[in-house]
Amino acid sequence: SVLSSLAALPVPTIATIDGYTVGGGLERVLACDLRVAAKMDLIETTRGLLPGAGGTQRLPRCVGIGLAKELIFTGRQIDGQEAASMGLVNHAVPQNSEGDAAYQRALTLAKEILPRAPFAVKMGKLAINRGIEVDIASGMAIEGMCYAQNIPTRDRQEGMAAFREKRPPRFIGK
């Protein structure tokens, strides 16, 4: 339930993997919206277990059923580049001498998100998370409802005014 609560947070979450992330640690990473990594694997089957904290559900939604089965069945370790090539992580970074390269890239990513309209980001996350669970027509309806909630916001008005006036927007989260 902790990982479901993490996945349900209304703000973007970014996981950083600066070393090995195995088993439940990778399941925690999968509960986040964005991921920056070096190495990871789901080792549970090498220990007589199966991923039991969402790995069998989140991994296939992230990389597809075939790759998820391969990773879970084999318990094989993959590096950040392979994880990025299969869509498991957003960014793979070479480790730096401080051992925090993934954290530094995640911080840069967070700084890209931070100046965006908070309510629009929240509604975007909601539309994606709820829409992916249903058929496309229902997903479009969910998107429409989120869009309708965003239209009357002061941030949407500020964003449009800033665009017309050719200046950076000053969002306040309302």
UniProtKB/TrEMBL annotation:
GO terms for molecular function: enoyl-CoA hydratase activity. One of its GO terms (biological process) is fatty acid beta-oxidation. The gene is Echdc2. It comes from the Eukaryota. Gene3D superfamilies: 2-enoyl-CoA Hydratase, Chain A, domain 1, Lyase 2-enoyl-coa Hydratase, Chain A, domain 2. InterPro entries: ClpP/crotonase-like_dom_sf, Enoyl-CoA_hyd/isom_CS, Enoyl-CoA_hydra/iso, Enoyl-CoA_hydra_C. One of its GO terms (cellular component) is mitochondrion. Keywords: Lyase. Pfam families: ECH_1 (PF00378). Belongs to the enoyl-CoA hydratase/isomerase family. This is ECHD2 protein.
